[in-house]
Amino acid sequence: MLTTKPIRVFFKYAIPSILGLLAISSAGIIDGYFVGNYVGPTALAAMNMSYPIITIIIGFSFMFAVGSSVICGKLMGENNLKEANNIFSKSIIFIIFSSILLALLLYFNLDNIFSLFNAKENLKNLTVNYLSIIVFFMPILMVAIVLDFFVRVDEQPNLAFLALVSSAIANIVLDYIFIVEYDLGIQAAAYATGISQVLIFFILFPYFLSKKSSFSFIKPYGNFSSIFKAMKNGSSEFINESSAGITVIIFNYIMLQKFGTFGVTAYTIIGYFITVSLMINFAIADSMQPVLSKNFGALNYLRIDKFLKIASIFLISIAVVLVTFILIYPDVLIELFLEGEHKKDIENLTLQFIYYSWPAFLFSGINILITSYFTSIQKPFYSIIIAISRSFIFPISLIIILPIYIGNIGIFVTLALSEFFTFLIAIYLFLKKREKMPTSLITN
């Protein structure tokens, strides 16, 4: 991370991260394929209704994983391995207990939470049935997410890739067995997802017991203030995930009011494509976090600039390819998920989403990269501003205001305008911070 040519380091970390997260997101899309085609559109809508709760849980995990791992990355860049191990040990202890508590809290309140949506009873029941199984598996997934980030900091991106790909393959196989062969309904998708996530933990955990690991479990010393510092530092990741979930709640509510259950199904389908795009963006940004934090600890500011330039070019190139594909072949996405008598109605809504929201993909990658950059150099306030703008403030305000003046088109253009306005803020904050960088300390 500190001496190899930046382009080689970038591809060493970015490619496994992209492939791993794409594998996980594709497994989620396969879930949608099996549920949409073998269970029905209402069950597909129920999976989308579950998304906000899942993002809050994963967002908490990401907040802690990213915040603690970049602190350890900086410490390793400073050659302070003892304190890095102390924070690592505290992190694992904290995430185990907090994940169990959070899962229990959600499990016993799911019915009350989804009563607030005013969804039809059938949709609500399917959503609660699906989530009650997912929540059961969540503690081990949350621990696995933290382990995944520490594996990357320890310069083992291929192991992280192996864990994610193995989980994705297991999920697809189990989906087929449970849904197609045994016809177990939406609960089958939940069990397939949960069991496959357990696999990530069992692949990653033994590494930290081996001699290859730079990290080791030690008896923690000192107070737990470093835990709160980690949570503060990774708070933008929580905002990215959880506020995206809140945005989905608002979108689902508005789509239910305007178009009924089919509106939620249409939003779910375009959401799968958005997920693939975001997974690539987050994969590149996340893969750069340990690299940037270590170089920040070693005062290699020029290398940080080089990594950011390479990542930006790569993100923009990927976005252009994805946008070109979805505009030329929108039917491919729709055909994958829909069959039956209501296909035409849902297809029309999905096409409107595609044609109005595609500019969002051109800006979201840079927004996410700059957020990760500020997290890596431990400037959480700037990260929070960008994250809350793109995931909460602009989407919520625009989807409420725009339909009043331009009708349903206002719903469809919200995502694109949100990313564009956030892009302006992100670029301004990045240039402002860059001017203050201590250039007298720049090294190669």
UniProtKB/TrEMBL annotation:
Q: What is this protein called?
A: Multidrug export protein MepA
The record's comment on protein family reads:
Belongs to the multi antimicrobial extrusion (MATE) (TC 2.A.66.1) family. MepA subfamily.
Which PANTHER family does the UniProt entry name for this protein? MULTIDRUG EXPORT PROTEIN MEPA, SPORULATION PROTEIN YKVU
Q: Which GO terms describe its molecular function?
A: antiporter activity; xenobiotic transmembrane transporter activity
| GO aspect biological process, one term | response to antibiotic
Alphabetically sorted, this entry's keywords are: Antibiotic resistance, Cell membrane, Membrane, Transmembrane, Transmembrane helix, Transport
Taking the first listed entry, what is the main subcellular location of this protein, grouped into a coarse class?
membrane
Signal peptide start-end: none
Q: Which Pfam families match?
A: MatE
GO cellular component terms, A-Z: plasma membrane
Localization: Cell membrane
Membrane topology label: Multi-pass membrane protein
Listed transmembrane segments: 9-30, 50-71, 92-110, 130-151, 158-179, 185-209, 238-256, 262-286, 307-329, 353-374, 381-405, 411-431
